[in-house]
Amino acid sequence: MLNISSHSVKEKMPQEKLYSLRSLETPLAGKILAKFLLGMLFLFFLILFLPWQQNIRGKGKVTALSPSNRPQTIETTIAGRIQVWKIKEGQFVAKSDTIAIISEVKEKYFDPKFLERLQQVISAKEQSIKSKDMKAKSLQRQISALEDGMRTKVNQSKAKLEAETVRFNNFKNQYERSKKLFEAGNITLTKFQDIEYKYQGSEADFVNAKIEIERVQAEYLDKINKAESEWNNTLADIADTQADLFKQRNELSNMEIRSQQYFILAPQAGYVVKATQAGIGETIKEGDAVCTIMPQSLDVAVEMHVRAMDVPLISKGRRVRIEFDGFPALQFSGWPSISVGTFGGTVEVIDYVNTKPGEFRILVIPDAKDTAWPKQVRMGSGIKGWVMLDDVSVWYELWRQLNGFPPSLYQEPADEDPKTKSKEVKETE
User: Helices 189-260 and 114-184: crossing angle, nearest 10°?
Assistant: First the structure.
């Protein structure tokens, strides 16, 4: 209908009564849906330009920053048989508290008076060394006395040799003069023979004096050599006895230390988590685990594993949002300010070596400026984490995700804390 005429038929025939006209009109629900879709499209267009904080996701568990505060396995140093347990699982123990007492299983240490007898052996060895040392000193004095006696005897023999030499020369001169006189017929044969006899006797005494010096030297040298040989043997015996003494003392020290190992002590304060051995009478070997202790410490951290391709984007001090298993949370990774049930942290350690193929480990500590972590969190609890990076637009983040590009950084991440880095530079200089 063109509505040209001034006389309208709408008043005589309303459109609501005409089915064909009603079917051509847009339904009210369609109009509402169209407006809703246009509003959603406009809202989506606005959201594309909102800021979005990029992040790196990772999973891990609760741990301690210091290795000394992580769960520790208590091992036995020596082999033995469990004699008595002093603790129960879940019990708190202080440092040096007795966890268990073990008894010996080696035949060598069955004697209850082994330490006492070993001390007696050491005392006997020490007394033997003293006696042999006295003997060595006595032999030294004997050797000195023999050397002095040899020098005295040799000097006496040399003096005698000098006297015999003078006497021999006198008789020789007398013999030569008498021989000339006898040949000239001035003395009788009897007198010449008497002089010749005395000359031969003085010659024999002279030779004997020489031999006496050599005999005296040989006699004393033989005695000195025997004394020195005995002295050297005594010194060797002393050295052997001292070696045995050192071994016995070493064994005594080891036994004293071993006797202390019968008591398995707690290395630090904590809670007994699990006893890995059964009841009384069970035999354990050296290095076998007895129980596990969870140290009492507030040194809580989170161990996260991230992809190797994301590690270059992480730096020490980066903020992290953490969701603990068992705690209800609603996390908007791009808008951490509106997240509920998550807790803040900062990156403290980035491993230089991959923990798993294609993954690196980072350690996160609580953020002092954020809400404190719940006390109910226990070691080993699972977590989900988001390392927060820089802000970008939502449209850019969608475009990046669709193309598989890594997150963007406006500047190169620092590898270390500036204070630590400056210290290393000074040490290098």
Answer: 170
pTM, two decimal places: 0.61
DSSP conformation class of 340: B
Q: 222 and 177 in one domain?
A: yes
Is 335's pLDDT higher than 90? no
The whole-number pLDDT of residue 412 equals 61
Domain count, the chain: 4
Residue 109 domain flag: no
| Tokens coding 210 | 């020489």
Quick one: which of 158, 164, 162 has its CA closest to 203?
Answer: 164
DSSP states of 195-214: HHHHHHHHHHHHHHHHHHHH
Q: Hey, is 146 helix, strand or coil?
A: helix
Computed on alpha carbons and rounded to an integer, the radius of gyration of the chain in Å comes to 55
Task: Indicate the SS3 state at residue 320.
Answer: strand
E strand map for 351-422: 359-366, 382-393
List the one residue out of 394, 227, 376, 389 whose CA is nearest residue 306.
389
State pLDDT tens for residues 85-97: 998 888 999 998 9
